[in-house]
Design goal:
Structural class: alpha/beta
Helix content: 25-40%
CATH topology of the largest domain: Rossmann fold
CATH class of the largest domain: Alpha Beta
Oligomer: single chain
Largest sheet: 7 strands, mixed
Shape: globular
Number of strands: 31
Distance between the termini: 53 Å
Number of domains: 2
Strand content: 15-25%
């Protein structure tokens, strides 16, 4: 099948407003847009400025009204609690309406903020949709997030209400959320009026009279209540999602309503090639943008079935967990992070556990969240016998910037590349003076303004910070803060954050390129390369290696081989002389390696354990390894 990508992208380039006007027909408007884009509104313009709609109605009501209420909307699968549940569109709508009545009963209305602090349970999705139904702006904070970080988000968003669960469940421990929430409430200068607490049987929380209210009791009283979806402007905020700011003040990425629905609907059909009624699984968390877009909103807007998984890629119970879920729910398309696949590969390098499952309904595996190194892609292609599609986007954009649009006909895969820009995105590679660089040359990745529907219109209450953070350095462009290349075919390669480009004796080198070489060593399961201070060269690369299960050769031997491999493939200019085997790499809960913190430890700079860390012990182990080498 020949890809229609070039023709579709050309349609957008020729007439962007006509393109998005046509795409907008995929959602239900209360008042359809007569204007598609207003270049004078907001920081850089606004999409569908005179239209109105409701996100919850698009996700639920219209499917029930069309006679598809009996279709499963969500498969909830929780190996950590031994729980499974199938929830139809009609059942989810009834639950959301009751919860919307409860939330409104606390005096929450359109434009008010609600913080959601919950694990991967169906009530969390209901909470997001119930807020959207009444026009409240939700701000999901990753369940179990540190009290100080949670407090900073409460203080910035100034929510009227907090929706929380008593605990999260990990494979080997219970994480009590309530003490963290109580401490955050103490630290925050803003004091929400009430907290609605969902009590999980694994650890029930002590309630504070007058402030805390029981979820189950409130829902029982509201059962059967009908709450009509509120008419919202397309430009009204749907949610705020916080990212850590360099100043220590969190950046609240605002997502508007209409443009987001349009972009997500377009992506489900054209990028992910998922049809209404098919099962789509994103193995992420609702605390991240991936979870917002592709666990909750996109699948439900499109009328697909979304899998909500409360578990891990390995250890719940083994490295066959992904394949079991795909087989059980007949998942057509699966979306995860490269780090998750590396964890599976480390435990089951030959993919033997996959042979236990029927994956006949499974068509495509999508990767995002960090750079997909070619070795991981090659392994996944071999064991799954399916296309492995890398794609690239950010919290700020809300949906993919670059991808291989499977629904338009899959394009040739170039391993290590997320393929090409999606309609709406003109992606350029420029130098520090904002001048285009030659094909294949490394530079800063920028996106021509205006950004397409679905991307952030601004930061919450921080228009000026929006301009300073993203729009001022490269006039006329949005700064992605990523570095990379674009080849003669228009394929992008993301080499890492601009912070990951190191200067070795005057040579600008990509640590991502070195990681690609290190990962190709047959004994290496995953790795991180970063630049550490060097008195003579300025910076010098250092590699941290995690080995595959069962490797028993001397570490020193493998380290020497890795150093030789980099020198052979990249050359002496890389000055790659140090490789260290570690048991594991410290990561965030979304799977990103904490390169910046590792670098601070190696450079003997002050550092703190990030709030987003998955396992603090892993950082201590790396610190000990660094000290042991005298770096």
């Amino acid at each position: 099948m020949t890809s229609r990508y070039a023709a579709v992208y050309a349609q957008w380039r020729e007439n962007p407003e006509a393109f998005w006007a046509e795409a907008a027909k995929a959602i239900d408007w209360i008042k359809a847009p007569s204007r598609i884009f207003d270049p004078e509104a907001g920081v850089y313009g606004r999409w569908f400025p005179d239209a109105t709609c409701n996100a919850c109605a698009n996700a639920l009501d219209r499917h029930v009204a069309a006679g598809r209420g009996a279709q499963v909307a969500i498969y909830y699968d929780s190996p950590v609690t031994g729980t499974k549940r199938s929830i139809t569109y009609a059942e989810l709508l009834a639950e959301v309406e009751a919860l919307a009545a409860v939330i409104a009963g606390f005096g929450v209305g359109a434009g008010d903020r609600v913080v959601i602090y919950m694990p991967m349970i169906p009530q969390a999705i209901a909470a997001m949709l119930a807020c959207a139904r009444i026009g409240a702006v939700h701000s999901v904070v990753f369940g179990g997030f540190a009290a100080k970080e949670l407090a900073s988000r409460i203080e910035d968003a100034e929510p009227k209400l907090i929706l929380a669960a008593s605990c999260g469940v990990e494979p080997n421990r219970i994480v009590a959320y309530k003490p963290l929430l109580d401490r955050a409430m103490e630290l925050s200068r803003h004091k929400p009026e009430a907290c609605l607490m969902f009590q999980r049987p694994q650890a029930e929380a002590a309630m504070i009279p007058g402030r805390d209210h029981d979820w189950a009791q409130a829902m029982a009283k509201a059962a059967g209540q009908r709450v009509a979806p509120v008419e919202m402007k397309a430009t009204d905020p749907l949610y705020i999602l916080y990212t850590s700011g360099t100043t220590g003040v969190p950046k609240g990425v605002v997502r508007d309503t209409g443009g987001y629905l349009v972009a997500l609907a377009w992506s489900m059909a054209n990028l992910y090639d998922v049809k209404p009624g098919e099962a789509f699984w994103t193995a992420s968390d609702i605390g991240w943008v991936v979870g917002h877009s592709y666990i909750v909103y996109a699948p439900l807007i499109h009328g697909a079935t979304s899998v909500l998984y409360e578990g891990k890629p390995v250890g719940t119970p083994d490295a066959g967990a992904f394949w079991r879920v795909i087989a059980e729910y007949k998942v057509a398309a699966f979306f995860t992070a490269p780090t998750a696949l590396r964890a599976v590969r480390k435990e089951d390098p030959e993919g033997k556990l996959l042979q236990n499952y029927d994956l006949s309904a499974f068509r495509t595996l999508f990767l995002a969240g960090e750079r997909a190194d070619p070795e991981t892609v090659i392994w996944a292609e071999r064991v799954t016998q399916r296309p492995i599609v890398d794609h690239w986007w950010q919290t700020e954009t809300g949906w993919p910037i670059a991808a291989n649009p499977v629904g338009l006909g899959i394009m040739p895969i170039k391993r290590g590349s997320p393929t090409v820009p999606m309609p709406g995105y003109q992606v350029d590679i420029v130098d520090d003076a904002c001048q285009p660089v030659p094909a294949g040359a490394m530079g800063s990745i920028v996106i021509k303004l205006p950004l397409p529907p679905g991307c952030l219109p601004t930061l919450f209450r921080q228009d000026e910070r929006m301009r300073e953070s993203y729009l001022s350095e490269f006039p006329g462009y949005y700064k992605t803060s990523d570095a990379g290349t674009k080849d003669a075919d228009g394929y992008l390669t993301i080499l890492g954050r601009t912070d990951d480009i190191i200067n070795v004796a005057g040579h600008r080198l990509s640590t991502g390129g070195m990681e690609e070489v290190v990962a190709s060593h047959p004994d290496v399961a995953e790795c991180a390369v970063l630049g550490i201070k060097d008195a003579i060269k300025g910076e010098q690369p250092c590699g941290f290696l995690v080995l595959k299960a069962g490797v028993s050769r001397p570490f020193e031997e493998i380290e020497q081989e890795v150093v030789a491999l980099v020198r052979d493939r990249i050359g002496p200019v890389a000055a790659f002389k140090t490789a260290i085997v570690v048991a594991r790499l410290p990561k965030t809960r979304s799977g990103k390696i904490l390169r910046g913190t590792i670098k601070k430890i190696a450079d003997e700079e002050p550092w703190t354990t990030p709030a987003t860390i998955e396992d603090p012990a892993a950082l201590d182990e790396v610190a000990a390894a660094i000290r042991g080498r005298g770096l």
